[in-house]
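Example 336.
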Amino acid sequence: MCDTNTEATKKKVLSCIQPSGLLTLGNYLGALKSWVEMQNDFDCTYAVADLHAITVRQEPAKLRSQIYSTFAILLALGIDPEKNTVFIQSQVPEHAALAWLLSCYTQFGEMSRMTQFKDKSKKHPDNINVGLFSYPVLMAADILLYKSDLVPVGDDQKQHLEIARDIAIRFNNIYGDVFTVPEAYIPKAGARIRSLQDSSRKMSKSDDNANAWVAILDGRDDIIRKFKRAVTDSGSEIRIAEDKPGISNLITIYSAVTGKTAAEVEREFDGRGYGEFKLAVGEAVADELAPVKQRHDEIIGDKKTLERLYKAGAEKAESVARKTYFKAMKKVGFVL
Ligand code: TYM
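Predicted structure in complex with tryptophanyl-5'AMP:
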């Protein structure tokens, strides 16, 4: 990271992740890897976005264990809960409260255009709830409460970020300088990791085909097996090309994990076959994720420490969120 801010003027970073299933390699390369890197140069706030998860029906016991596990993964990745603010969204009531306020400054038409709403409505036709529709407003509240300058996310969240900016600008135009207008921070490699079985789709934890995605907590053998089975394209050359979406995706993954450029990866595997390359990608991913799984399993076994950390995180988050929330309420005309 190139920022040279001092402690007091450090730019603010915020991002969240849903606990609605096992976290994937897509989550890791598109967002979490940046979260870890950014903590060295920015004032970072990271949350488990559990309120977002219930736009799709969740089984209570499973949701609870996913919330714990997601929080534990953040710590296992090396995100320092002392240096940063790490918390669970539902434990800071200002998120839902500000979302209501902001929803009155958001137009029905602009929400209807959200591609994720359209996709999820198709996927769950029997549960097109109002929360699914207004989800981006809650996300805007998450971001605006912490006066965030930068929001590290994968490519699929870009549209939601734009709405958060629009809402902030609209509110500020009416009431003066209340919210910081955020910017998306999208990684160069890894912004859109694709399914290992169908390269036209993004890698997603909600994909029914378990071979299509790698979980951060998958064991080494499973990871390598999934990469060996990954769909590739015709021909045998290992290079990024439009007519080679499968191999291009694997090059992106390998390059995001190793830090090598795509050109370097192409050179490294020049003249070598798909089989050899797929094994190398699987091994590199397995090596990268193994320590995360090990630390996660240790942390999840110590519920007391986990509880102490998420409670402290929520307190720290709320002390910031409350100020922004009350400022916005006051501007609108509420009696405080
Ligand atoms: P979520 O939980 O679906 O995903 C968390 C992060 O992972 C990224 N991501 C990917 N990146 C690259 N390739 C993929 N295949 C891939 N799949 C997921 C996502 O872009 C995201 O950055 N609405 C958000 C959570 C959220 C949030 C926020 C994010 C709630 N409030 C405030 C930022 C700021 C979501 O559903 O992400």
